[in-house]
Write a structure and sequence with these properties.
12 strands; globular; binds 2'-monophosphoadenosine-5'-diphosphate
Length: about 270
């Protein structure tokens, strides 16, 4: 029987997920489909309760429904609970289950390029929006002792640090540089640098120690102005495309029964389309 999966969001035309799941379906010769479904806010709850009857094994949930899915679903894994948002759903024993695979994707991307990131003790996360929650969860899971959250609006960083509790601290973005000498990893979770704009608004990285790793969740362009600046200081960098690719792995395995690989070919295929 053909297995079917989806990505549900509103609007949905920008999603890269059909590209990469389509690549894997072809690569592994799996009889299946992965469709982009426009689902409005009003229609989402009915959709979530009924997708199994339409023959879907599961799918991805994207903006603006990730938090709503978290509120509506009863069967959530640890990552979804910690992050407060769901991006992957599937059916198990007739129940709809939810996960958030962004933290996994973030960690797997760093593992691919600089596995020594796990030796780090202190990380500094820039931004306190939805995207930063998954990153903070990943860092805490990896055993970081100190996760500093630096945000332009410091109140948002404070609230986020408080919601994670131990090992998380907030600071104003303007003060980030003064923490750099003791920082092993810096993550930009803001949209600054998207579409090749400058990195204006992000801190200068010159005080970071030589061993520090700098990563960005923005992947258009692949080399953001922030990563370019890190390279110019001789720091190690990891671009954000791998996070997008790796976060898709657990879902594909759940829906289609095969754990896919993130390869150079997949990366090049997706890059050619973005
Ligand atoms: P998402 O849910 O995708 O993370 P978001 O909730 O809009 O998006 O959060 C965007 C993040 O980028 C926020 O931390 C935001 O800072 P504020 O909380 O102060 O708004 C940050 N951000 C966006 N543009 C910025 C800029 N020009 N300078 C500094 N921070 C910026």
């Amino acid at each position: 029987m053909t297995k079917k999966a989806f990505v549900a969001g509103w609007p949905i035309s920008h999603s890269k997920s059909p590209l990469l799941h389509g690549f894997w379906l072809k690569e592994y010769g799996i009889e299946g489909s992965y469709e982009a479904l426009p689902v409005s806010n009003e229609a989402f709850e009915t959709f979530l309760n009924g997708f199994g009857e339409s023959g879907y094994s599961g799918g991805n949930i994207t903006i603006p429904h990730k938090e709503k899915a978290f509120q509506l679903l009863e069967n959530l894994d640890e990552a979804a609970k910690a992050i407060g948002a769901v991006n992957t759903i599937w059916i198990e024993e007739d129940k709809v289950c939810g996960s958030n695979t962004d933290a996994y994707g973030f960690a797997a991307n760093l593992d691919d390029h600089h596995p020594e990131w796990r030796d780090g003790k202190t990380a500094l996360v820039i931004g306190a929006g939805g995207a930063s929650r998954a990153i903070i969860h990943a860092l805490l899971q990896a055993g970081f002792d100190n996760v500093y959250i630096a945000n332009r609006t410091v109140e948002r960083a404070k609230a986020l640090a408080k919601s994670f509790g131990q090992n998380c601290y907030s600071l104003a973005l303007a003060d980030a540089c003064s923490y750099f000498s003791g920082t092993d990893l810096v993550v930009n979770t803001t949209s600054i640098g998207m579409k090749g704009e400058t990195s204006e608004g992000l801190p200068d990285l010159k005080e970071l120690p030589n061993h520090a790793i700098v990563t960005d969740i923005v992947y258009t362009p692949l080399q953001t102005p922030f990563l370019k600046s890190a390279n110019s200081y001789g720091l190690k960098t990891v671009d954000g495309l791998g996070m997008l690719l790796h976060q898709a792995v657990p879902g594909f395995e759940k829906w289609f029964g095969h754990r896919p690989a993130v390869t150079k070919d997949l990366r090049e295929f997706v890059l050619g389309e973005v």
